[in-house]
Amino acid sequence: MSTLGATSVIFDLDGTLVDSEPNYYEAARQTLAQYGVTDFTWAEHEGYVGISAAETTALLKERHAIEASPEVLLAEKNRRYLELARASTRVYPEMRKFVELLAAEGVPMAVASGSSRVAIEVVLAGTGLDTSLRTVVSADEVAHGKPAPDVFLEAARRLGAAPEDCVVLEDAAPGAAAAHAAGMRCIAIPYVAAQADDPAFATAGLLLRGGQAEFTARTAYDWLVRSAPSR
């Protein structure tokens, strides 16, 4: 039996398991350029980290006064993203080790992401993570995206786990806020270092301010053991 008892682990995908943000940035940059917006920067992109694809697209449309509908804009951006994701998506090495460590112990795991289900499945299949992470919830499948807790609560439901037995791994403040609202413990690995002081991250049980450079599978596992609720 696992030393983690009834613990289940729910992973955010983008910026947490995989470094997909460069692909999302490039997809958005190419899409905006098609509509005459040629000054979209990485710094602007960072402001949308942790927000669902649909909400990000709506905000980009408003900010840059694009005439196309949000649905058309989102479809174009998703098409470009999927092309990039299929070509190359990098898994964080220590995250892969962590998934493999949990899988070896039979810990229930899920992915809960603001990306579309198609995008999630493409990335998981392309990286081989789908062999361990079979339970997937997209923000498209729930009423409200992060920072609402819906996507994490649905993941817990599909795992058959109580929220208090779940641990969320997140790289963005809206995700950390969603985990807290769901009544789940959280390991926070900020993707944008400058956002580490966001109050949402203060609710995390383990905050690794150095992001992925500080994260190790062993550190996360040991924390899970120490923080597992007693029964």
TrEMBL record:
<dbReference type="InterPro" id="IPR023214">
    <property type="entry name" value="HAD_sf"/>
</dbReference>
<dbReference type="InterPro" id="IPR006439">
    <property type="entry name" value="HAD-SF_hydro_IA"/>
</dbReference>
<protein>
    <submittedName>
        <fullName>HAD family phosphatase</fullName>
    </submittedName>
</protein>
<dbReference type="Pfam" id="PF00702">
    <property type="entry name" value="Hydrolase"/>
</dbReference>
<dbReference type="InterPro" id="IPR023198">
    <property type="entry name" value="PGP-like_dom2"/>
</dbReference>
<dbReference type="InterPro" id="IPR036412">
    <property type="entry name" value="HAD-like_sf"/>
</dbReference>
